[in-house]
Amino acid sequence: MPKIQVMDEILANKIAAGEVVERCSSVVKELVENSIDAESTEIKIELIDAGTKEIKVTDNGIGMEHADAINCFARHATSKIRDENDLFHIETLGFRGEALASIASVSKVELRTSTGEVGTVVKINGGVVESVSRGDARRGTVMCIQNLFYNTPARLKHLKSLYTELASITDYVNKIALSHTHIKFILRNNDNVILNTDGTGNLLKTIKDIYGVSVAKKMIAVTGTNPDYQIEGYLSLPEIHRSNRNAMVTLVNGRVVRNAELNRAINDAYHSYKPDNRYPIVVLDITVDPSLVDVNIHPTKMDIKFSKLEELTTLITDMIHQKLQHKTLIPHITETPVIKKEEPKPRYEEMKLNFDQTIYEEATTYIPVNDSFITPEKEQANERLFTEEVSDKKERMPELYPVGIVHGTYIICQNDLGMYMIDQHAAKERINYERYKKEMGNPSDHAISLMFPITIELPANEFIILKENFARLRSLKFEIDEFGMNSVIIKSHPVWLPKDYEEQAIRKIIEVIISCEKNFSIEKFNEKIATMLSCKMAIKANHFISMEEATALLEDLRNCDNPFHCPHGRPTTIFYSNYDIEKLFKRSGF
Ligand code: ZN
Ligand code: ZN
Predict the structure, then answer these.
(1) pTM here?
(2) Which of 11, 233, 257, 476: disulfide with 284, CB 3.0–4.6 Å?
(3) Which residues, 6+ apart, have CB-to-CB distance to 518 below 8 Å?
(4) Numbers of helices and strands, H then E, in the chain
């Protein structure tokens, strides 16, 4: 090939690299996917300084023949022959052929590969092949990329920080491990092992390897089917939640996809079981006929369009909701696990550049506290206390006997299993919330006339919105009319308005109507009103109630659809089992 043409090609690769090699994580992704395609059962990813100095991926896959080892760095090298029926492979075609060439053009690469016979070693520097030689015969491929971006310092500077690079690589490897449980993945950065899965094909074990044993113990298995979709996976109990959506993982036909609709369906199912700005840990594996999905071809992310999306989101929401409704969801108070001395230090500790609280939180929870599921018998029994599913809704919340009230705020109760603390405000809020929702969804014909009608003056724009919603308010049994310039008068209101707070409640309801103006939905409106009123009408902290009142409150709570959380998703009840208490007082063999 004439020299000038080679130069052109190197230049073209560098331009392409600009699009492909944006981050260390995109390089890791490319190499790992090649290893998966090579039928590897073990893939080791070793990084130096979050990949900025070195990314080394070692696999035990089929390896490459001598000629392929050189050709794989050529531009437009078509990679492996793919099954045309495998829809998901379309995703990277075209892009993929160029990826290795692009990576090689901005770094120093050493490839060692073998099909099990004679091995090949190829060394490339800034896109130029420096040497090709014989290597050892161990089957598999080692791809080592050094000094990525060394000749594009601007891009190196552009990387947010080693810390965020590592977080993004970890996130990717976690997800690929969840979608390929039969492959053993090892991820290391400098001297720290970040992930080490066992590759036995057990999803729960992989979840344990990623999120730690204490999370894995609080995951519940779910399955769901409709005529088109089949779902299997695990959900965290609502007491486990995180500040971002990273741990909500959806797989479609074994591939990780990102889809806002699916995430929303999952979140909807958890509504009021956890605070709205927190997210559960969920892994759902969705199986579907490929003709029902449409994959958006984009090199860096994987989005997907479903036909029959609504059926799918309903299936997800119902499946999760069903599961949560048949569980006793009282958080167990156990001693905070003590991290043994020989445990590795928090893995990201050496990388506190650009310290970010949310990522730190993610990072620290990756530390497995205990490496085995094996726990003493008594403890197992303790953990089993509430894990069984119950058929009768009411049985989920055990019968409790109040013994006292602390600070006019927490009701202490007992039964055979142990001791419970109930937040009286949260409990009352939940009871009110379910009552308001019921009454609003099913308004009675009665209304209460106000002795002194309320008039409210509004800014012109808000008045217009409100006027458009008169019919809605009237159907809820408010007698509302125009009353001069930009004013309304309310003469009667529905029976469920909290007594002595009528005017306040009416003003709040009007505020909600005005704030919901865009995409008003009656469910959202009812939800907001019920949440707002329930809090207003709940017993405040420091308000002393009698034991009789406490007993009645507990009975009402037991009758709720979800007695475990207030409408804001905070727990109503906390449990100390007899075993937990013995442990805290060091009475049992600890
Ligand atoms: Zn409240
Ligand atoms: Zn609340």
Answers:
(1) 0.72
(2) 233
(3) none
(4) 19, 22
